[in-house]
């Protein structure tokens, strides 16, 4: 195997190992509540077994050896020989953390890691020794687990070049022997006249396997084999055929060269009338359907696809503009068709980059469990809306802000059991993490039933820090927003978890970088709710192209409610900056005034675009609405880096640059009366 192949194989392993760690952690936390659930126990064994097999395939012997005994524990649990205890769950969680270290540094150069390795190995061995005692005491119970055995026919013929990537077919056959009782036939397919090449594989295996594992688990044995390898797993009969003496006697001897095909074994079964053969056809059909249900694609390829789609949309915009300026019915029809196809392609590519947010939520269960135990608090952590889909880039960048907010809830929000009991609250606090769609945005909310935020204390702290003056009049919402000021902290003591005042401003910055917004609500004694609003995607948006003076801007179409046209003189000099639309008054922001453009050049008629921001609607006054535009978002340069009203830029069809306005930030800035020294 060359170096590139090894790197590629290792990258695949790292990716799949990451998924397995998530699965194991999720199953362990669920099993903590339902330790006798056989589906959870089976899932745990399956994931640990696959992790061991995968690490063996890339030659990570240290990892394989470490997991082997842990797998033995779950084999006993799965077989009903020992119960799944809290001690086993705790040990497994720590072992998975250690396996992550082992994968990266198998030589364990750090003394702390080496000591941890020895201690965990000892704990695993102690659990296995204790399990032997428990098994002796519970011997009669074992008779319950013999009823679900089935017999399968497994055929495995590796391709001739199987050895060249370092693979060992005997390890796969050995795995089959580990999950049940087996009868193994090896057949060498080499013509005597052919020249023998020791680097090629000429052997195939036919295995009769009696096991209580489902067929999907048997198929998982071959998960890392190539498409050119022949793998067949077929159901033969319910029960253990290998325990039937008649069947054994009719089968060819294992050292013979007789054919042991699936059809041959079936004919033997029919010969011995006391064995009932079940129809295996449905199993085969379902296996075929599963095999094409999904494929794994590298994230970098999806990023590349989105970049190419973005370039296509930009080119298509140029084509549309050319067709518009050069009247030609044929060209216009082609341009319209191109626009339609580009939009469909964009939507399809966009869907491919979406991930369920459950992939992110699942990471926090373990953290909440460990932190609440450290703080001595009882917390019920609930997640909702895990099937909400978001751009994978957003999910990747949302992990740190959410982790910080959850840690704050645990440290500063949720009270100890004693205090909660004194306040008449349930002893166990609750943190709800949920996500949901609203319009074209996704909202992620962290809600706790803790002690809430004391707004008066925030104001006093802000005055003492010089952030505001005593004479400043702040609404509750504006006062709560002070927690996002850099360096602001209400914590009296700095702990390992929080209290340095360097977190919430970073949380807000990270959310803004994602073109999102964040708001906080709190009720003293009842709890705090923090809501993060996020766009579905960071790459391409549907926008409304507008003009202010001679400059083009894009307003995200998802936030636009309605558009109006009014005489500028009818509203622009209003002292309260409100405009009447459909007999209702709305505050408005005059972009010409905001950008300090000369009033003399303003048109007589202006367009008012009503934009929704959370629970309020605000009008944006522009000179002209050009029309809808698919905007491919590009980062802004250094001149606009500190302008919070701009969330990006896009290239128009004529090659000009248009800035994408962050309407939420513009509204917040315009209506804030904070005079923060820090800003």
TrEMBL record:
Domain HPt: 2-106
Domain Histidine kinase: 300-538
Catalytic activity reported: ATP + protein L-histidine = ADP + protein N-phospho-L-histidine
E.C. number: 2.7.13.3
Keywords: ATP-binding, Chemotaxis, Kinase, Nucleotide-binding, Phosphoprotein, Transferase, Two-component regulatory system
Residues recorded with modification Phosphohistidine: 49
PROSITE patterns in alphabetical order: CHEW, HIS_KIN, HPT
CDD domains noted in UniProt: HATPase_CheA-like, HPT
Domain CheW-like: from-to ranges: 540-672
Pfam families: CheW, H-kinase_dim, HATPase_c, Hpt
Keyword Isomerase: no
Name of the top EC class for this enzyme: transferase
Function: Involved in the transmission of sensory signals from the chemoreceptors to the flagellar motors. CheA is autophosphorylated; it can transfer its phosphate group to either CheB or CheY.
Protein name: Chemotaxis protein CheA
Organism encoding this protein: Reichenbachiella agarivorans
Native organism taxonomy: Bacteria, Pseudomonadati, Bacteroidota, Cytophagia, Cytophagales
């Amino acid at each position: 195997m060359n170096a590139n192949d090894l790197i590629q194989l290792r990258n695949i392993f790292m990716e799949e190992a990451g998924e397995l760690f998530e699965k194991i952690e999720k199953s362990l936390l669920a099993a903590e509540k339902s330790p006798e659930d056989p589906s959870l126990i089976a899932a745990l064994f399956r994931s640990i077994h696959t992790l061991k097999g995968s690490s063996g395939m890339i030659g990570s012997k240290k990892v394989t050896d470490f997991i082997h005994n842990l797998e033995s524990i779950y084999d006993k649990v799965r077989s009903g020989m020992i119960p799944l205890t809290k001690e086993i769950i705790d040990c497994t969680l720590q072992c998975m953390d250690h396996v992550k270290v082992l994968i990266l540094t198998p030589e364990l150069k750090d003394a702390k890691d080496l000591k941890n390795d020895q201690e965990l190995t000892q704990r695993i061995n102690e659990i296995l020794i204790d399990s032997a005692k428990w098994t002796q005491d519970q011997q009669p119970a074992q008779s319950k687990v013999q009823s679900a055995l089935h017999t399968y026919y497994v055929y495995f013929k590796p391709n001739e070049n199987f050895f060249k990537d370092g693979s060992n077919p005997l390890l796969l056959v050995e795995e089959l022997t580990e999950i049940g009782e087996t009868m193994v036939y090896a057949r060498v397919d080499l013509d005597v006249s052919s020249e023998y090449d020791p680097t090629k594989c000429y052997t195939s295996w036919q295995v009769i396997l009696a096991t209580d594992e489902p067929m999907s688990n048997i198929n998982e044995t071959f998960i890392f084999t190539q498409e050119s390898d022949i793998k067949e797993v077929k159901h033969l009969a319910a029960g253990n055929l290998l325990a039937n003496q008649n069947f054994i006697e009719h089968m060819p001897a294992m050292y013979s060269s007789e054919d042991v095909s699936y059809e041959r074994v079936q004919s033997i079964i029919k010969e011995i009338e006391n064995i009932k053969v079940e129809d295996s056809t449905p199993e085969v059909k379902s296996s075929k359907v599963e095999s094409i249900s999904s494929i794994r694609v590298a994230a970098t390829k999806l990023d590349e696809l989105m970049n190419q789609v973005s370039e296509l949309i930009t080119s298509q915009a140029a084509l549309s503009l050319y067709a518009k300026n050069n009247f030609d019915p044929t060209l216009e029809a082609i341009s319209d068709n191109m626009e339609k196809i580009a939009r469909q392609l964009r939507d399809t590519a966009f869907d491919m980059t979406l991930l369920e947010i459950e992939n992110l939520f699942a990471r926090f269960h373990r953290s909440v469990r460990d932190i609440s135990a450290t703080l001595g608090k009882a917390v019920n952590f609930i997640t909702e809306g895990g099937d909400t889909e978001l751009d994978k880039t957003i999910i990747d960048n949302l992990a740190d802000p959410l982790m910080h907010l959850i840690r704050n809830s645990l440290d500063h929000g949720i009270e100890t059991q004693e205090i909660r009991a004194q306040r008449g609250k349930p002893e166990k606090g609750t943190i709800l993490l949920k996500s949901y769609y609203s319009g074209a945005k996704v909202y992620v909310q962290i809600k706790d039933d803790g002690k809430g935020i004391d707004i008066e204390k925030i104001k006093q702290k802000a005055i003492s820090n010089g952030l505001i003056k005593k004479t400043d009049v702040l609404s509750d919402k504006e006062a709560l927003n002070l927690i996002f000021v850099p360096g602001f902290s209400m914590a009296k003591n700095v702990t390992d978890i929080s209290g340095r005042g360097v977190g919430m401003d970073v949380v807000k910055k990270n959310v803004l970088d994602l073109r999102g917004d964040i708001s906080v609500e709190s009720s003293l004694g009842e709890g705090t709710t923090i809501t993060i609003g996020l766009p579905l995607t960071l790459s391409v948006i549907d926008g409304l192209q507008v003009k202010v003076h001679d400059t083009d801007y894009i307003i995200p179409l998802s936030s636009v409610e309605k558009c109006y046209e009014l005489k500028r003189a009818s509203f622009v000099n209003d002292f309260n900056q409100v405009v009447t639309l459909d007999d209702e008054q709305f505050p408005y922001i005059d972009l010409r005034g905001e950008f300090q453009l000369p009033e003399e050049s303003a048109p007589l008629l202006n367009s008012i675009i009503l934009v929704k921001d959370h629970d309020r609607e605000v009008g944006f006054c522009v000179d002209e609405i050009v029309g809808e535009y698919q905007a491919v978002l590009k980062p802004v340069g250094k001149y606009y880096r500190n302008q919070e009203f701009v969330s990006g830029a896009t290239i128009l069809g004529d090659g000009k640059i248009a800035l994408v306005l962050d309407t939420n930030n513009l509204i917040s800035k315009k209506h804030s009366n904070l005079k923060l020294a820090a800003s």
